[in-house]
Design goal:
about 50 residues; mainly beta; two-stranded antiparallel ribbon; 4 strands
């Protein structure tokens, strides 16, 4: 499930897809160098991104 949040943090579902259909997932956040960029998420395990 892909969600988008408004300024107050209220989530809104943007799209739902089967996990088997995903080949990669990325989140926007600070990289090791400190600048914001797209960071690939692990291919195994559970993760959350806010």
């Amino acid at each position: 499930m892909l969600e988008c949040a408004d300024q107050r943090g209220k989530p809104e579902r943007v799209r739902t897809c089967r996990a088997a259909a995903l080949t990669a997932a990325f989140r926007r956040g600070p990289a090791d160098c400190g600048t914001y960029s797209w960071i690939q998420q692990p291919s195994e395990g559970t993760w959350w991104c806010y």
